[in-house]
Amino acid sequence: MAEEKESTSIPLSQAENACSEDPEDPAKSPPNSPNSSTRRACCFVLQSWASKKFMTGCVVLFPVAVTFFITWWFIQFVDGFFSPIYSRLGIDIFGLGFITSLVFVFLIGVFVSSWMGATVFWLGEWFIKQMPLVRHIYSASKQISAAISPDQNTTAFKEVAIIRHPRVGEYAFGFITSTVTLQKDNEDEELCSVFVPTNHLYIGDIFLVNSKEIIRPNLSIREGIEIIVSGGMTMPQLISPVERAPPRQNERIPLNRIASRA
């Protein structure tokens, strides 16, 4: 005979109480203690303060790191010109090639400033301009170097200019490169050739704008180049146009003063 298994019976009242008790119910979960809430608030404040200070450190150290990296790369690059010569001579002093390069550039500037150096430079420039591809690269790089040269010649940027472009209410930042006279039937119009960079300082558009419609800010050429290269981050908060001095008129002397002097 098969043995009959006795089933245990649970009262209905206990079953209903077991079903009604939900451990995941937030209403019936035990309340949080004040200490845990304070601990969470302190952790949140500490985490926010630490992340803010960390980002502040990154913002401060980023330009310093970039400056030191570029400076170190430049020193190693310039030092590499003359350091192999000193290595062959048995002289191993770091920075000696860099100093020699600076002295060499200074002597080149002194030599080119003389009549003989200018003649040699002109011959070398003429030879470079005869090359098909090299002459275009040389001409573009020469125009850029002439723009920041301390000797402002005819090929350099004349002034910093602000023109209304491309629509009313918008302005473009550029440089005045030259002036041209437009002949008309009634009267001649003086125009200024304004170079507006579109890709940092190497590529841009040229606009012929009436000289009276150009805003000339109180910025130097170097400051204008820094604004273009930095993407406008070095733009001063206040820009005022340069006031041109009116033509001086002859001072009039009253007749009584003339009589007294006579």
Largest sheet: 4 strands, antiparallel
**Shape, principal axes of CA atoms:** flat
Radius of gyration: 39 Å
| Overall pLDDT | 75
Total count of helical runs of at least 4 residues:
7
Widest beta sheet: strand line-up:
1-2-3-4
Strand tally, please?
4
Structural class of the helices, strands and pairings? alpha+beta
Please give the alpha-carbon distance between the first and last residues: 160 Å
Helix content: 40-55%
Strand/helix succession: HHHHHEEEEHH
Main traits of this protein?
262 residues; single chain; disordered C terminus; alpha+beta; 4-stranded antiparallel beta sheet
Please explain how this structure is put together.
With 262 residues, the protein is of the alpha+beta class. The chain is 48% helix and 14% strand. The protein has 7 helices and 4 strands. Strands 1-2-3-4 form a 4-stranded antiparallel β-sheet, covered by helices on one side. Helix 2 crosses helix 3 and helix 3 crosses helix 4. The longest helix is centred in the N-terminal third of the chain and has 55 residues.
